[in-house]
Amino acid sequence: MVGPSGAGKSTLLALANGAVPPTAGSVQVLGADVAALRGRALRRLRARVGTVHQHLELVGQLRVVHNVNAGRLGSWPAGRAAWSLARPQGLPEVLAALARLDLADRVFERTDRLSGGQRQRVAVARLLVQRPELVLADEPASALDPALADRVLGLLAELATEPGGALVASLHDPALALRHCTRVVGLVAGRVALDAPTSALTVGDLATFYGAPR
Amino acid sequence: MTAVLESPPTVPSRLHRARARWAWGLGAVAVVLWSLAGAGLFSGNVVNPAGRAQFGRFAGTALSPALDAAFLQVLASSALITIAYAVLGAALAVLLGALGAVLVARTTWGRRRLGWTLARGALAVPRGLHEAVWGLLLVNVLGLDPWVGVLAIGLAYGAVTAKVFADLLDEVPRGSYDALLAAGSGRIAAALYGLLPPASGGLLSYAFYRLECAVRSAVVLGLIGAGGLGYQLALSFSSLRWEQVWSCVYALAALCLLADVGGRAVRRRLAAPRTPGDRLARDRVLTAAVLTTLALVAWSWWYLAISPATLFAERTREQLGYVLGAAWPPDTDGGLLRSIAVLAVDTVQMSVIAIALATVGTVALAGLAAQPAGPTGPGRRLTGTAVRMGLLLLRAVPPPVWALVVLFVLLPGVLPGAVALGLYTLGVLGRLAAEATEELDPRPRAALAALGAGPAAGWLYGVLPGATGPVLAYALYRWEVAIRDSVLVGLLGAGGLGALLASRVGAFDWAAVTTILIALVLLTLAVDLVSARARAALR
Predict the structure, then answer these.
(1) Angle at the Cα of B328 from the Cα atoms of B323 and B329, rounded to 5 degrees
(2) CA atoms lying within 13 Å on the CB side of residue B480
(3) Total domains in the fold of chain B
């Protein structure tokens, strides 16, 4: 997804994970109407949808391991969630996920002591242990250097496509979109202004969407 | 999916617990157990089975308060007296605080650390004494005069206000102030332009907060004879007129609610005032609030028929001279010192049990008392309102009155005082914790909900980590307040240093009074120090 600030990219992603109810129409996610689901059924669906939020929404006071493990709260019973705060559960998987992001050495650090780029990677690690079928990513690479950004997007795409799901990402960098996505949707003022397979587009086509000629 | 997680895990670094925090935590548990043992919870009987019937009669009248016209009239005039004391006391406190702040601010002293330390130390004396203690001392100098209540609140609060005002001024970033000095402006002018404007919101906000607190203090002073709602409550209680007691309690709750809501509205507005950008105009609501308060001060002055002449009367000077003469040197008799030590331990135990009780209650209730961020069902809203009303009642009734109620069911000793203080503190702490929970960033919790976490897990991972720090810090801060309040509970008979103080004042044994006051100030200083250290370890 590409588009200028305020075009509705984040809102569209929030509609897909049920954080925002639609004012009209319905939203079909993984074969279910998100707005119609309640309680346990909604939780089960949400556990299958992973989101990397624009402002990351990590709990700063928790250690990294707990923020990553939070990805499993959709499947863990409350007792196990509570116990994990005292004795971190499933540590090997957390470490493996962090290692893929070069962050394994910070696993017991308090999350608010990390830099912006490191926190972004913690948010991605949370998804790696959640194992969602649909990945929604709102600017997942905004605070990363180009090499890391490439790697993170590759990971997210791999994560989503392996179980046959999809990655929906909003991106500010046209080059990243062209490299990692198969389809580009351009939004302007809440409307779809462009919908084309990547192969039919160039970096210049996308740059116009941000009003910055390249 | 496994492909993503296949790479071999690196050697995990060890999970280090923060040692300092664990030490503080274990220490706190030990102190609470020691206090409970000291209160006799593990040895012997603490319950008073005979009082249960009396308690039943008291509780039974909760829903049928006295509403006859004559009593309501008494209640209304009592409320006016309480308000007048609160307003005048708070006004005096703000005045003294503003003057005192200049004397103790770091900005005034600059690099002269010794002077600053001495000025701060001098503040510790009025700050360490509860306003009721001030009232008790002043009544012996001024006689039964409205000045007693006003000065008691004004002096005790003035010292706290001076410290907070000075801190607010010192916390303002120095850049603009230094720039003005560098440009050649005088220190006063530089402070007016570079320090006061950024601090003014905080200063005014704190002044209104003090006004809220002064209402509660005016009630407490009423208990020891200054008149008003507190006096009426004590009168009804001692004549066993339970319906009237409940009327007083509800009136107090209404007054507290008024002060809370009004104060909070003003403080919210101060945080985000509405002024047009294109012309010189003030925020109307804030202007109205300040003008109303000033008018209230004038009215209170008239209503209490206060005359400055009393302060300068011949009799006052004589009496003050006599008391000061008799009070020095302090009594250092071995027996007195020993009993002070024993009672100081009682006082500390009382405050520790009170805070432990209040903290446990707060953890249980804060989640319910906080206004939920999103839309909720009517059941949750109703519970929330009920819990908030309950907390309001708990903090509207002064701790000594709770002590009288608790004495129905518990035998006299440290425990009833502690339970009473704990109930009152729960009322205050519960509200603070609820506000802290409401002010947490809701986004992490929303993100957890979006990935399917249930309400319990969402609370554990999204709210608890963020709320624990502020709530514990508040609890420690309230401990500092509770040690002062436990003296008040003692003044009215629940034991500890307060009871000893009341008996020595009653016997006009001023030398012993001086010793007890010194012990009180040292005790509060010690508690402040421990609490400050613990809060630093929390950060």
Answers:
(1) 155
(2) 22
(3) 2
Cβ neighbours of residue B259 under 8 Å, at least 6 residues apart?
A: B86, B211, B212, B215
Name the one residue in this structure whose structure tokens are 């009341």: B502
Query: Which of B321, B345, B380 is at the close of a domain?
Result: B321
> E strands of A12-117, at which residues?
28-29, 32-33, 49-52
Distance from CA of B169 to the nearest CA of A (A): 29
Please indicate, yes or no, if residue B498 is contained in any of the structural domains: yes
Tell me which of B41-55, B137-151, B511-525 is least confident: B41-55
For chain B, say whether A130 makes contact (Cβ under 8 Å).
yes
Instruction: Return the residue in A13, A59, A94, A107 with the most chain B beta carbons within 10 A, the one to mutate for interface testing.
Output: A59
Measured distance CA(A159)–CA(B3) in Å, rounded: 9
DSSP H or E segment with residue A167:
strand A166-170
Minimum distance, in Å, between the CA of residue B62 and any CA atom of chain A: 40
Under DSSP, the state recorded for B194 is: I
- Is the CB of residue A131 less than 8 Å away from at least one CB of chain B? yes
Q: CB-CB: which of A49, A70, A104 is closest to B10? A: A104
Comparing B14 with B25, the larger pLDDT belongs to B25
B390: its two tokens:
């309950």
Q: Is A53 helix (H, G, I), strand (E, B) or coil?
A: coil
Mutate to test the interface with B, among A61, A91, A124 (most CBs of B within 10 A): A61
Q: What is the model's pLDDT at position B13?
A: 58
pLDDT surpasses 70 at A181? yes
Least confident of A130-144, B80-94, B277-291: B277-291
- Does residue B1 have a pLDDT over 50? no
Measured between CA atoms, the residue of chain A closest to residue B374 is: A19
* In a shared domain, residues B289 and B214: yes
Q: Spell out the residues 6+ positions from residue B373 whose beta carbon is closer than 8 angstroms to its own.
A: B438, B442, B445
Domains and CATH numbers, chain A: 9-210 (3.40.50.300)
Is B281's Cβ below 8 Å from some Cβ in A?
no
User: What confidence tier does B281 reach under pLDDT thresholds 50, 70, 90?
Assistant: low
Say if residues B208 and B263 touch (Cβ distance below 8 Å): yes
B115 in a domain, yes or no? yes
Any domain includes B328: no
Instruction: Say whether A47 and B452 touch across the interface (CB within 8 A).
Output: yes
Cβ of A100 and B461 within 8 Å? Answer: no
CA B495 to chain centre: 21
Residues B373 and B251 in one domain: no
**Same domain, yes or no, for B339 and B293?**
no
Q: Is residue B49 part of a domain?
A: no
pLDDT for residue B422 is more than 90? yes
Question: Residue B153 and residue B170: Cα distance in Å, rounded?
Answer: 25
- Which residues in chain B are closer than 8 Å to A164, comparing Cβ atoms? none
How far does A187 lie from chain B, in Å, by closest CA?
23
Q: Which domain holds residue B390?
A: 334-538
For residues B268 and B340, membership in a common domain is answered with no
Mean pLDDT of chain B: 82
Do B177 and B292 belong to one domain? yes
